Amino acid sequence: MPKLVFSRHGLSEWNALNQFTGWVDVDLAPEGVEEAKAGGRKIKEAGIEFDVAFTSVLKRAIKTCNYILEESDQLWVPTVKSWRLNERHYGALQGLNKKETAEKYGDEQVHIWRRSYDTLPPLLSPEDEGSAAKDRRYADLDPRDIPGGENLKVTLERALPFWQDHIAPALLDNKTVLVAAHGNSLRALAKHIEGISDDDIMDLEIPTGQPLVYELNDDLTVAKKYYL
């Protein structure tokens, strides 16, 4: 039975400051480091042995992946990094304080920006100093693939090819897979895996640092789902 483990990165520095983060490459907060290490210990206690790990190109997810593998004595496991597993791009909201943004635009509008499946945030121009178009880790991408902002629908659309080309084939080969990524990229993949509706996905929250285990049938439908 194929096994898939999701781990949202531990608390980041901007999570702690209540700021929209998205594609900004912030580090883990000290508490986030401990969350990631604790997740690795839980995986070791559960006897889960990975064949391959996947993560994003943002250091809070990469470090979480490494801490998990280190604490479970599996640091040797092959790891693949991809921008397609990045957090949802929050556009011009990135770097803003969530509470202050709610005071400015209203709680309802900010809730829609954060949780709506198909509503885009205010977009970031490619010419903006904070645009990912200026980041060399994305230099090989088609400029049309570099977002100015994303909703969950767009996040799923860019994550799905990576699922189909890399994660699903590993699972179909009966491998045990770790995906250490972000709240929204994991929510997008969970929506696909579990067949969650556009409305119900708004209520799905994946907590930081807690490994989420899927035991899958041979056709990759979910047989069992639980947190360690």
TrEMBL record:
Its EC number is 5.4.2.11. This is 2,3-bisphosphoglycerate-dependent phosphoglycerate mutase. It comes from the Bacteria. Keywords: Gluconeogenesis, Glycolysis, Isomerase. GO terms for biological process: gluconeogenesis; glycolytic process. It is an enzyme of class 5 (isomerase). PANTHER family: PHOSPHOGLYCERATE MUTASE (PTHR11931). It comes from Enterococcus asini ATCC 700915. The record marks 182 as: Transition state stabilizer.
